[in-house]
Amino acid sequence: MRTVGQVLKEERERKFYTLDEIEKATKIRKELLEALEKSQYSKLPPTTFIQGFIKNYGRFLGLNQEKLLAIFRREFSEGAHPPKVLETFSNPVNEKKFRLTPARALGSLILTLVIIFFVYLWFEYRFLIGGPFLEISQPNNEYSTNSPSVQVTGRTDPEVKLSINNQEIGVDVTGKFSQEIKLSDNINTIVIEATAKGGKTTKIERTVFLKK
User: Where are the transmembrane segments (predicted)?
Assistant: First the structure.
């Protein structure tokens, strides 16, 4: 008994159609059409899809679709022919996979280096045109205290020269600093100044009130 694939192939050849023409007309991949004609069901997707292929193929050739499906049901056995989705079926033609090629890897590396370079230039530009970073954690401005001294703490760039009331003090490797300053008047002005290597300065003043 002829298989459904043989029926389809014989009718196609009788009408002088190529598989490429059938593929274009039915939108069924040529690899699937070939597997169907050869009854290679293990290379085809599940039976629901196979039946849809048979109906579309038969409709194009002008064959009775119900008879074709009846032939298919007689010859096909799920246990003997477990369906398997073809790679070409699970990955349509218009689906593009990203593949890392040497050219793409080199391009990504160059792009990364360019970004790093411009970030470096931005930081250098910022450092040259503006004063260094300086932040005072305490005391707050117009701070009031009964103590004869106050602790000045904050952080700045590690490379700068830092002074409080013209007295140079040190900073740690992270730029943090802490210095005790004595208070002598009712109103005390504390000047914290950071000077970069290029001569740019950032100055912050704090007013501290001493209650006697």
Answer: 105-123
